[in-house]
Amino acid sequence: MSLINTAPEMALTTKVDDFLNWTRKSSVWYMMFGLACCAIEMMQTGGPRADLDRFGMAPRATPRVSDLIIVSGTLTLKMALRTKVLYDQMPDPKYVVSMGSCANCGGLFQLAYSVCDGVDKVIPVDVYVPGCPPRPEALTEGLVKLQEKIQQERWLVRTPSAANA
Amino acid sequence: MAGADAVGGERLMPALEAAAIHARLKARFGDAIGDLAGTRRDNTCATVAPAKIVEVCRFLKTESGLEFDCLSNLSGVDYPKRSVIQVVYNLYSYPHRHLFTLKVDTPRDNPVIPTLSGLWSHADWQEREVFDLLGVVFEGHPDLRRILMPEDWPGHPLRKDFVEPEEYHGISTSRESLLKA
To answer: Chain A residue with minimal CA distance to B168?
Structure first.
């Protein structure tokens, strides 16, 4: 049985923030930014098997149009300064996923003289994904968590605290 | 290297034993070459006087029968007890399939060695790495800048007395352990 031309005419109602968040969480473009072995898993996550495209995610080659930066790998102090610059170049609203032990806390290389122990020392992190490196499934779960976070944001709807102000 | 003397139909030139290479160096440069050390084929080495290193390497590279055409590695070691920084040159000859290692001691407080970048162009970056991590100055190097560490990094981190800075551009370099005692 065909469903074509069978649905009644209808309108959906939703809150404006929910609608905005739904559009935004469904097209999170992440920056092509790989630091170490985690980047290999990130590429794998973007590939056909894990397939980030089904969440509307696509890699972008510039921070200027990216919504998300996935810090995938060991962050050296030299790179930390550059990462901060890249983050500052991204337009708001922007999100950060810290992928793997090294980006979370320095991981295996925590005691090395050249390593920044955790990307949260430089830029604010939304989601931490544990693992060394995390499998594509783990990163996918982290990104789904990020979508959940985006869906709960409030932008236009008046909040009680803002109404009193 | 049995069976390796004919590769691609081309007959290789005979490989020399380390002792023979050392003997030829000794005959040419005398006291500038130290005693032969090492027991295996891949760790036999001799020390060289810093001032002679370019001459010795040019001899090894160009002399018929030696022809070390590849500086396969160049590294440095810090020996604070002897107050010496040792730069190690691993040489390899593709035509002969033999190898040899040279070591140069240089004082820790003023480590200066002539550059080999005029002889092997790939010595350029390897010398920059040794300069970056150990602070050895390669005299005559065309572009002696840091290659790995940030340009404004304090000190040379592979020196044994290197102290990690507390912070770098406001980023603290330590992290509290999550494991509480």
So the answer is: A77
